[in-house]
Amino acid sequence: MKVQKILSMAFAATMLFACKPPEPVEVAGITLNHATLQLAIGETEQLTVTFSPNDASNKTLTWLCLEASIATVENGLITGVSEGTTTIYVSTLNGKSAECVVTVGKTIVINEAYSNGGRFTDDGTSYGDLDWVELFNNSNSEKDVSGFMLYDKEDKSEFVILPENTKIAAHGFLFVEVDVAGGFGLSSGGDKVYLENAAGEVIDQIEFGALAIDEASARKPDGSATWVVQTPTPGTSNNSVVAKPIISNFTQTPASPTDAESVFVGASIVAGDGELTTTQLVWKVNNVEKTPITLVFDNTINTPNFYDGTIPAQEVGAVVEYTIVAENSAGGRAEKSGSYTVIVAGIDYSVLVINEIDGNGKFVEIYNKSNSAVNLYGVYLVKNEKTANEDIWWTGGDVSIAAHGYYSIQQSGQDPALGTEQTGLNGISPKQNVKFELKAPNTSVIDEFVRTNGGAWSAKVKPEYDSTTPQYSFARCPDGTGDFGLAVPSCNAANPATADGPIVTDD
């Protein structure tokens, strides 16, 4: 009986232990199948969660996207809504979490542009024989881009059309050389590019600023709405390259300072990658280096991310050269340079005119209409509109032109020598299209002379005026105020009150 009672008690204890529920298994952590994700607008992608341990008891999840204007999420299904980058968060009831950074973009986009084709860096590196544009497919499926068109002007006067059977793989790239026959070149000083689909609809367009030989304008991450300046990566991802800081909205005030004026220099600067670590103005005067000036963030300027500093006043004639240097924490570096020459204060340059041009004697004469002498320091002549890298035909030194006086510049190396100085850069021909601009030190145009048949500068034009008797010059008659006409050359002397006839220009 005693044994039976003991057995009964043991059986009851065993049954009680067997019926006790197991302890719950807590979630130790979760991971997602994607840490980053790229989607086209309207495209979907399912995120899946892996639990650690796999036999965790409660696998209830909460999904969240703070920027529903860019993407939405429901039970892990993400839908791209508009261009941008956002983060999807998922968490368990016990606070374990994971996240996925999602970039949403248009399906086919211009991803990168390079405008220095055929040029080489100092170490001989080239990033392409021709200017090029890179397209990117933001979607998860291959896309046919046959018949898509690229161009840089709204009138579509020059363009490139993608040939039949041109396809871009899912999240793939297409490298397109645009500076081909019938195509278009991109300006290294900045340009626009438009992309049309086969139906003639503009689906993307970009505008970029000046680019150096080793720089491209690129989306980073690929296909995103964020543009950076970085080393070119034609046909491959932009994501692994360090982006340089971007310097824009550059300003220098005044453009042509006097010896009593300091110079304000500033620009908008953004980091590109990481954070800005250096914003500095490196400068020198007459090739003598000065202590660098730190550019300080200025929230009083109505321009975003603006940094500025001041160069102190310098003496008349001083040549000041400076470079804005910006560096970021990722190792990127960008520079923007400028220069100016300090001029004499209080001069009215509007009293100066181009008074005579002689293609046979090879001289240009300047006349002072005023009753006071005018200092010509920093005044200059530009020939044939060489505005990108101005072909400065002559630059004035610290000399003056007398009241109602003349100052003539002859092309160097001429015989007989005429005029006040013989320092003109290159030839003047009486049988070619030609344009001369007289400019003030602040680059504003004071006066100009133009003779053209509509062709290129230096193209042949008739009559040639080198075989006539006499050999005429093109002169204002009378001095300073009259229209240009034909006259017997009168270097540094009065032109006739009336021209011998009009300047004729034939094709």
Short summary:
With 507 residues, this protein is mostly beta strands. The protein is 4% helix and 42% strand. It has four domains: 29-105, Immunoglobulin-like; 108-241, Sandwich (Immunoglobulin-like); 246-341, Sandwich (Immunoglobulin-like), CATH 2.60.40.10; 349-487, Immunoglobulin-like.
Overall 3D form:
elongated
> How big is the Rg?
36 Å
Write down the oligomeric state. Answer: single chain
Instruction: Kindly report how far apart the N and C termini lie.
Output: 136 Å
For CATH, the homologous superfamily of the largest domain is named as Lamin Tail domain
Which structural category fits the helices and strands? mainly beta
Q: What is the helix fraction of residues, given as a range?
A: under 10%
Q: Which percent range describes the beta-strand content?
A: 35-45%
For the biggest sheet, the summary is: 6 strands, antiparallel
**What's the level 1 CATH class of the largest domain?**
Mainly Beta
Task: Give the number of helices.
Answer: 1
The overall number of domains is 4
Number of strands: 42
The name of the CATH architecture of the largest domain is: Sandwich
The main sheet orders its strands as: 16-11-10-19-20-21
Which fold name is given in CATH as the topology of the largest domain?
Immunoglobulin-like
Low-confidence stretches: none
Mean pLDDT: 90
Describe the structure in your own words.
- By secondary structure, this protein is mainly beta.
- The protein folds into 4 domains: 29-105, Immunoglobulin-like, CATH 2.60.40.1080; 108-241, Immunoglobulin-like (Sandwich); 246-341, Immunoglobulin-like, CATH 2.60.40; 349-487, Immunoglobulin-like (Sandwich).
- The strands form 11 sheets. Strands 16-11-10-19-20-21 form a 6-stranded antiparallel sheet, with no helix packed on it. A 6-stranded mixed sheet has the order 38-37-32-31-41-42, with no helix packed on it.
- The termini are far apart.
